[in-house]
Design goal:
Layout: H1 2-36, H2 40-45, H3 50-59, H4 67-71, H5 77-97, H6 108-121, H7 123-126, H8 135-138, E1 144-146, E2 149-151
Antiparallel strand pairs: 1-2
Length: about 150
């Protein structure tokens, strides 16, 4: 009987310690990891976006913003994280499979997201402007430059 009690106590302590570690990880770990994964340095570290990062860092009109501020939907947190996961996994697979194109171009979905974020951030400025046109049609300087070609 004494051995069973000792064993239960040991299992209880191990279970409690594991639960505490998991709770600490959930409370401290992922938020820091999540915050780090939203930085431009993180995006540049695992993508082949050196030229886009350098253009943003040195001459970008929106240097105070992170990549995710323009390139992910930001009007709804669950949608933001869903697309962050989708785009992140797609980029991870393409990068590790060696299928990253030399000339990185924005997708049609990405173009719509960027347009929506432009309008959301600059709502007071653009409310009287034709919002069917792409903001980047006129504001080409905010786009990333790469080898003389304009990309986003």
């Amino acid at each position: 009987m004494k051995g069973k009690t000792r064993r239960r106590l040991k299992l209880g302590l191990l279970g409690g310690a594991a639960a505490l570690l998991i709770a600490l990880f959930l409370l401290i770990g992922p938020p820091q990891l999540l915050a780090k994964s939203e930085t431009p340095e993180f995006c540049e570290s695992c993508h082949v976006h050196e030229a886009q990062y350098e253009a943003w860092f040195h001459a970008g009109a929106h240097r105070r913003l992170a990549c995710v501020d323009c390139h992910l939907p930001n009007d709804n947190k669950p949608v933001h994280y869903m697309w962050k996961s989708i785009d992140g996994m797609k980029d991870l697979v393409l990068f590790n499979a060696g299928h990253v194109p030399d000339d990185i171009r924005i997708t049609e979905h990405g173009r719509r997201v960027v347009q929506g974020n432009c309008i959301r951030c600059h709502a007071e400025t653009v409310f009287m402007i034709d919002q069917e046109r792409q903001c980047t049609d006129c504001h080409r300087r905010i786009m990333h430059k790469r080898s003389g070609a304009m990309t986003m």
